[in-house]
Amino acid sequence: MGDDPFGINRQTIEGIVAEVAQVARLGVEMGVVIGGGNIFRGLAPGAAGMDRATADYMGMLATVINSLAVQDALEKVEVHTRVLSAIEIRQVAEPYIRRRAMRHLEKGRVVIIAAGTGNPYFTTDSAAALRAMEVKAEVILKATQVDGVYSADPKKDPTARRFEEITYLQVLEKGLKVMDATAISLCMDNHVPIIVFNLSQRGNIKRVEMGEKFGSIVKE
Length: 220
Fold this sequence. Notes:
- By secondary structure, the chain is α/β, with parallel strands linked by helices.
- The protein folds into 2 domains: 1-137, Carbamate kinase (3-Layer(aba) Sandwich); 139-220, Acetylglutamate kinase-like (Carbamate kinase, 3-Layer(aba) Sandwich), CATH 3.40.1160.10.
- The protein is built from 7 helices and 10 strands.
- It has helices spanning 10-24, 52-76, 98-106, 124-134, 168-174, 181-190, 204-209, and strands spanning 31-33, 81-85, 94-95, 110-114, 140-144, 149-150, 162-163, 165-167, 194-198, 216-219.
- Helix 5 runs antiparallel to helix 6.
- 35% of the residues are buried.
């Protein structure tokens, strides 16, 4: 949503898409997992009093809207994409099927993962970890608003220190808000590293893909 209070900020989407397109043109196979918090979040105050499962499904539908917006912006810069949704919505997206996702990646398409895991009570972090395992991804890139994993929220605690490297167990033991515990555990069990970095700085996705060390890495 960029600087807007709600909804889709076109300038923000175009900035993210320029980053993704730059990497896709290098021949890197990329799956992009989209959240929906700019439209609706199942745990937000707006969902207070709602059945949790209903609120979560509404959040999943919000991710489909965002995925279509990202797809549109990517195709405007001539990057081929497919939106694969965990909730069947055939008029606008293909159903998520593991082998189909892998085939799209092999053909050089950017695969946009919508609707999380398709199940309530699971976050898009869990969806990212699950899909990464399914397509045999080498690494998960967690593009966020801070430049790595900190001992506390750096926006609230000026003494918070950044970890260049940290283990999965340390993240779980310290309760650090990198990804939710389900996602971290899944990555730990399957030995998939997570690189956490700041998305707002242009060129960072390409820098990560080229092997430059910055941000934080979560590994064994």
